[in-house]
Amino acid sequence: MFALCDANSMYASCEKVFDPSIRNKPVVVLTNNDGCICAACGIAKRLGVGKKFVPYFQVKKELEAVGAVIRSSNYELYADLSQRMMDTCARFAPDINVYSIDECFLYYGKEPLPPQEGWATLASRIRKTVWREVRLPICVGIGPTPTLAKVANHAAKKVEGFKGVSVLDTQAIRKEVLSQMGVTEVWGIGKRLGLRLNALGINTAWQLANRDPSQIRKEFSIIVENTVRELNGEVRHTWDSVRAAKKEIYSTRSFGNRITEFNELRSALASHAETVAVKLRKQKSLTASMTLFATSSPHDTEGYFRRSHFHRFTVPTNDTRNIVKVIESAMVQLYQSGVRYYKCGVGLLDLHDEGLFQYDLFSPSNDNAKLMSCMDNINARYGRSTVQMAAKGFEQKFAMRREFLSPQYTTKWSDIPKIKC
């Protein structure tokens, strides 16, 4: 059996954890640079103002009219509360797979004995424990396959009568739920695939479940066949206990404000270089080459400008100093006076496993592993950029615009909630 634990409106719910004054108000969270809506709480959705990826400026007056609370994306807070939620859920199963920032699968084995309290009571206990300890509202769906666990979670959220908990442990309940689900609401069935299925008369999840898997494979793919088999209780999805290391690592972001100065662009690139270097060391890899780019906006009236620079290291490295050092030579190619830069980024390519890489006898590495480890440990304990490269600068005018940012209650000393008795 599998259980899927999924937080309701994760970002918006995180904003309410430490701010009781907004718990009964519509809350909307914006994307990077406060551009579009990326999350909305249930109250906002019921008021019709929580449509995803609508530009904020277009609905600003509508949001003001209903008294909506606007928040910039507080990724530091969301990541920390997500980890707390996952740690809490993990106590209720022998195995866990974190699927995304707001959901995880719990695995109980191929033929587990039902818990003494019953599956529904267990699901309810998970839900109540996460609410009590983390203050995040979640829904829990339990089924014999990952896809049916997803279906059960959908029912727990959206089908009347389930109230946050659903268990698909009988044929009757499975038929009842699948008959009420559109085919595009099934995990892995997108809009385009849904249109093709609709053309064959498959409009609900129940109709899809009753199709011949072999025939579905011929007409579509093995992925859709696996979905059909999972809807019928046959486990086809698995997850790796150890995720494969990334083959490329990028850090890119548009600026909060356009930048035109040489030093500002150099600092922005150094900031991205520091970010990718930390990620590189975290997966214990070395990079043999890197790419950098800087660009203006294609919508600017001054004309579009884009430049990139490729660099190959003599000896693969994961030392931040070596990666940042490349920026100085790249700036000659990337910077042009008068350009209003909108975005820049750094990418590490041709990655190698640090433990398996064979160094050249005549080209020794100049990486300082102890220094990098010391930096990473300090920043992990006291917060990002506690120790940083000087090239990154201290007044970052290029930083992401977050005008409605809430405090980082759990990851920043100055933002720790203060209680006065």
UniProtKB/TrEMBL annotation:
Domain UmuC, first and last residues per copy? 2-190
Q: What does the UniProt keyword field contain?
A: DNA damage, DNA repair, SOS mutagenesis, SOS response
Look up the domain of life of the source: Bacteria
- Kindly give the Pfam families that the UniProt entry links to this protein: DUF4113 (PF13438), IMS (PF00817), IMS_C (PF11799)
Q: Extract the PROSITE patterns matched here.
A: UMUC (PS50173)
By sequence similarity, the record places it as follows: Belongs to the DNA polymerase type-Y family.
This chain's protein is named Protein impB
Q: Which organism is it from?
A: Paraglaciecola agarilytica NO2
Q: Tell me the name of the encoding gene.
A: impB
